[in-house]
Amino acid sequence: MFPQLQIAHMKPKLPILQGGMAVRVSTAKLASAVANAGGIGIIAGTGLTVKELVDEIKKARDLTAGYIGVNVLFAVEQFAKLMLAAMKEKVDFVISGAGFSRDMFAWGKDHGVPVLSIVSSARLAKVAEKLGAAAVVVEGKEAGGHLGTDRSVHEVLPEVLSVVEKIPVIAAGGIVDGFDIARTLGEGAQGVQMATRFVASTECEAHPNFKEKYLAAEEDDVILIDSPVGLPGRALRNNFTDSISGEGRKPIAHCERCLKQCSTKFCILDALRRAVNGDVENGLVFSGEFVHRIKEILSVQEIMDRLSAQFEQAQALACQAPA
Ligand SMILES: Cc1cc2nc3c(=O)[nH]c(=O)nc-3n(C[C@H](O)[C@H](O)[C@H](O)COP(=O)(O)O)c2cc1C
Fold it and tell me: What is the pLDDT of residues 249-265, one digit of tens each?
């Protein structure tokens, strides 16, 4: 049996959050499937207009009575507008990626919506708790997308646990199966956030080529890129990443001014959209470090069933192990 996770009013059956994935990788369809299977689903607001995000939230509400949150990257120009729109729609919680501001906790208080934050160090976890975070997600270097650290989640987690006083600590990065969950909860996390495993699901709305790229990935296909956001990003090697490696740049044909600050090395919105729409050679395919361990596209329910069974197995093995 999984231990009970509680974040603010939320008591999910499984202590599993599905990580937000920008530019329509995690939409209402995936988030609601996760919520219906007993986890916590997250719609990514990054790359959507306010109207598109509100439509996704409404769609998710039609598909599930479970817990649904919204993730927005702090680096995007529309951060405040998207967060406030999600709060007005009374989502169960909001969560910021790659940074946070004092304001967002005040907005959450005003709207009665819990605010979570993704952190990569004990220092930031402490600040987030002090500002009013309902929980923190500690993300290690194993995660997909933008990274705030080059250290493993298993190194940073104990440091975060030693400074956070009252709120739940969720761990993220490289958690692929129920054995990983058992290890991470055994280290003291109250829950896990997983993203890469949920991309290879029938409900994820990324193009089938995107999912096939995951299934075909080998260990050394996973690389770090230099994102225009100003952070490293974990992705799969392809023509696109080769073209931007080192001093390589891609001229920007049309700028939507999506970021508060952009290095202009390439257009991240265009690169992510291309990949999600199926051009996985000329677009940017974000992925976690352990994608090579995923070999099947399954329904979210099947994924959750396997995670639960593997977790039980790990618990049983731990009980049998000699002291
Ligand atoms: C395709 C993809 C897109 C992502 N986009 C975002 C995002 O928009 N915001 C965010 O906070 N994290 C983003 N992440 C990070 C995940 O939400 C999650 O924390 C991390 O990938 C967990 O590691 P795992 O993928 O190994 O399970 C993304 C990850 C992937 C794989």
Answer: 888 888 889 889 988 88
